[in-house]
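Thread title: Can someone regenerate the structure for this chain?

I was given the following input by a collaborator and told the matching structure tokens would be attached. They weren't. Posting the sequence so someone can regenerate them.
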Amino acid sequence: MSNKFLKSDRLRVLVNGIHAKSGGGVTYLRNILPLLAEDQELEIHLFLHRDQFKLFDFLEEGIRIHLLNFHNSFFNNLFWEQFSLPILANIMSVDVTVSPANYGPLMAPAQIIILRNSLAVASKETRPIKRLYWGGLTLMTALSLLTCRRAIAVSDYARKALTFGLSKRFQKKVTVVYHGVGEKFNADVSIERQNFLLAVSDIYVQKNLHTLIRALEEVRKTFPDIVLKIAGKAIDLGYFNEIQRVLNHANMNDAVEFLGEKKTDELVALYQKCKLFIFPSTVETFGNPLVEAMACGTPIISSNTSAMPEILGDAGQYFDPLNVHDMVDQIILLLEDDETRFELGKRAFQRARLFSREVTAKQTIEIIKSVVPERYAQISISQLQTSS
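Best answer:
Regenerated them for you:
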């Protein structure tokens, strides 16, 4: 056995990152891993598929990255995660396993899962293969919740929705820890806002972009020059094609611009320049773009379902995401009212302070250390003896 896998004088933490391929999962790890690595009592090991490395190649030396080389598919990922990873964790003398998805390896040591993927999407899917996927995710979430040492829910909505109506049963196991927003997201009042609406999300059915586009068609009857920019990857190509059909039918291809995936600096510029940020999702457990827009002092209008009111509070306006007429009315009201948009931007900027990366990391570290109290006590004593 290599010396690097001997028992460490720090708490060895394996972060199972193979599900972080886009969107909130990637954002979460990018934000929190550098802060976890700063804790001198933790030794962080991040496991990724080789195809994911470009998403995390900026990480500092304090994080050990292990790249896996296997055919990247859902079933291969599942096999590797459930059978190979626990073996590797044992070889590496891992103390704690962190899986930043609803589920992880059931036999891994001292597992912590992050409850962040909404299972309500399953009820909105009609495609058999997608329903099968969400059914599998639901089963693995339930099994992981039963076998893990602790679970972190990214909102109170997630805590209730992802514990299958048994939130009281899992009260001691599940803790709510909000995501933090990256420090690059900030307001700049010197930048003049331009005549476009902004939506930021990877393209999935639950993002409800088709309803937003239908609403835009009506909004343009009052504001004919307004356009919509959508920043995010087209993950669900079937749904993306459906959106294109909606655009073609409405003859609105010139009114919607798909920007694709954007780097952080580009996103910040979009948040700072847009007239209004719109978040039309039918279901979210948190909504990272909400706190990013808030930190940039952007006026926000959002759907009124799931976790959105919990995260946004009184710092935005709301609409029913399934009612296109309500969406239209609320967008027009804000476009007509410069004073209200300015006030919402101020409220959003102030509320963003509730979502600190440092607080997220501190609470997460406390949970990591709590799942192996004997081992952590042993490490603490050893470090005290060394320092003295």
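The longest helix spans residues 128-147.
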